[in-house]
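Page 37, continued from 36.
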């Protein structure tokens, strides 16, 4: 993998709010945008900005559950070593 391909991932991981979002998603639950915003105390526009960055880096996936947009980690993400280091 080239450095150009890794840059968005490392950039996304360098933000505390992004890490907090990923920490919530490590539970394995399918969470709505509203649940994440409430849990982290983020406004809708701020959360939207963070989610675009994480999605662009391939770190999250968006799905729809009825009219609700939900987020999860891509399959296998966060299970790299079986330790809880990623869970915070």
């Amino acid at each position: 993998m080239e450095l150009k391909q890794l840059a968005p991932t490392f950039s996304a991981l360098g933000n505390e709010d992004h890490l907090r979002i990923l920490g919530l998603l490590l539970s394995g639950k399918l969470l709505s945008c509203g649940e994440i915003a409430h849990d982290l105390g983020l406004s809708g526009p701020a959360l939207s900005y963070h989610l675009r960055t994480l999605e662009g880096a391939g770190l999250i996936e968006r799905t729809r559950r009825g009219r609700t947009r939900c987020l999860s980690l891509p399959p296998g993400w966060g299970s790299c070593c079986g330790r809880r280091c990623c869970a915070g």
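Helices lie at 3-13, 16-25, 33-40, 44-56. Flag for discussion at group meeting. The chain has one domain: 3-76+83-87.
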